[in-house]
């Protein structure tokens, strides 16, 4: 959990105590056994404060626009091999970072073979566990056979959810849950298709994943039964890392690689367009999306891969890790902050 989020929780707790003490002093109705019960007014205030805490991130992100000023306020250098980073999650005392180590790159076929557009390649899937200073505590290896590519991850309060797929579209994915305290690993189920991100909807208890390029979403129960599938109504960016947002929302960051003009290198020189999108999992519509053009040490757009965001009132804090381990400064966890009006 980031410091801004901790501050937000403390602020909310203080508000609840203050509201409860004020109202309790004015309205207390006795019970038959001599105990006291808070009035409906007191209960309403508590419910309002709880709702405000739950919806703080969605409410604040709804006020972000293209003129929002983001300031880089932190940079944490990771001093171990991180390979190609994919997703990030934060607990109160740990950082989880998923990554794929490529040992044999995939190669595209001239024409599709057996439903695939490229070879399977070879690699190793990593889930790095760190303390809050970025010191490596454990390297959890995930995957089986051709499924070695971890995607975007999310923490549900108890478990970190990790999809590990083949490194090609229209393939297959293993869904893992990792207990954030004990680090016990459980393979939950396997699904068809490449799913590069996952969240748990805490209102339904179901998992929601997005496919290669985030062209499609799927919803499953915890036994892997597909309950729904729908096309992404948005073609702005390809989602790379997502997080659950109360209530029944999904906040994702991502990238679109766009060709440059001939004078800037043409189709071989890609421009990285970054962005963030908030999706309603009930209506399956995009509530808000924005471009994000801040750059890393290696020149990548900040939302290229790992991403998480928290809110403390009107203050948003975003943590990203766009650079790979073998790039100019290695992998750095960057912190950006913005105040929304």
Could you please describe the fold and organization of this structure?
Helix 1 runs antiparallel to helix 2. Strand 21 (270-280) and strand 22 (285-291) form a beta hairpin. This protein starts with a helix and ends with a strand. Helices cover 13% and strands 49% of the residues. The strands form seven sheets. Strands 10, 11, 12, 13 and 14 form a five-stranded antiparallel beta sheet that branches. It is globular. With 341 residues, the protein is mostly beta strands. The chain has one domain (55-339): Tachylectin-2, Chain A (5 Propeller), CATH 2.115.10. The model is unreliable at 1-52 (pLDDT under 50). The relative contact order is 0.16.
Short note summarizing the structure:
With 341 residues, this protein is mostly beta strands. 13% of the residues lie in helices and 49% in strands.
Q: What's the SSE blueprint?
A:
Elements: H1 3-26, E1 28-30, E2 36-38, H2 40-54, H3 56-61, E3 71-77, E4 84-90, E5 94-104, E6 108-113, E7 116-118, E8 122-131, E9 136-142, E10 147-150, E11 154-155, E12 159-166, E13 172-179, E14 185-192, E15 195-201, E16 206-211, E17 216-220, E18 226-231, E19 238-245, E20 249-259, E21 270-280, E22 285-291, E23 307-312, E24 315-320, E25 332-339
Antiparallel strand pairs: 1-2, 3-25, 4-5, 5-8, 6-7, 8-9, 10-12, 11-12, 12-13, 13-14, 15-16, 16-17, 17-18, 19-20, 20-21, 21-22, 23-24, 24-25
Helix pairs in contact: 1-2
């Amino acid at each position: 959990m980031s410091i801004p989020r901790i501050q937000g929780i403390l602020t909310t707790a203080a508000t609840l105590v203050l509201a409860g003490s004020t109202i309790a002093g004015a309205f207390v109705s006795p019970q038959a056994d001599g105990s006291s019960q808070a009035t409906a007014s007191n209960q309403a205030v508590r419910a309002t404060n709880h709702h405000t805490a739950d919806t703080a991130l969605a409410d604040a992100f709804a006020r972000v626009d293209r003129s929002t000023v983001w300031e880089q306020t932190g940079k944490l250098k990771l001093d171990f091999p991180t390979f190609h980073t994919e997703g990030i999650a934060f607990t109160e005392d740990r950082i989880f970072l998923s990554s794929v180590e490529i040992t044999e790159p995939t190669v595209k076929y001239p024409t599709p073979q057996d439903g695939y557009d490229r070879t399977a390649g070879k690699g190793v899937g990593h889930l790095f566990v760190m303390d809050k200073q970025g010191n490596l505590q454990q390297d959890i290896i995930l995957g089986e056979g051709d499924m070695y590519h971890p995607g975007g991850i999310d923490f549900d309060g108890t478990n970190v959810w990790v999809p590990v797929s083949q490194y090609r579209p229209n393939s297959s994915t293993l869904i893992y849950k990792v207990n954030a305290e004990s680090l016990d690993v459980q393979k939950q189920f396997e699904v068809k298709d490449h799913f590069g991100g996952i969240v748990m909807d805490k209102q339904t208890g179901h998992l929601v994943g997005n496919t290669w390029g985030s062209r499609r979403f799927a919803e499953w129960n915890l036994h892997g039964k597909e309950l729904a599938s729908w096309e992404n109504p948005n073609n702005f960016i390809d989602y790379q890392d997502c997080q659950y947002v109360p209530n029944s929302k999904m906040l994702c960051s991502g990238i679109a690689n766009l060709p440059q003009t001939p004078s800037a290198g043409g189709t071989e020189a890609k421009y990285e367009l970054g962005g963030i999108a908030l999706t309603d999992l009930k209506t399956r519509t995009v509530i808000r999306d924005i471009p994000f053009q801040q750059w890393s040490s290696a020149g990548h757009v900040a939302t290229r891969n790992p991403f998480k965001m928290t809110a403390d009132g009107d203050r948003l804090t975003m943590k990203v890790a766009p650079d790979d381990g073998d790039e100019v400064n290695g992998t750095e966890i960057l912190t950006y902050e913005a105040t929304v009006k």
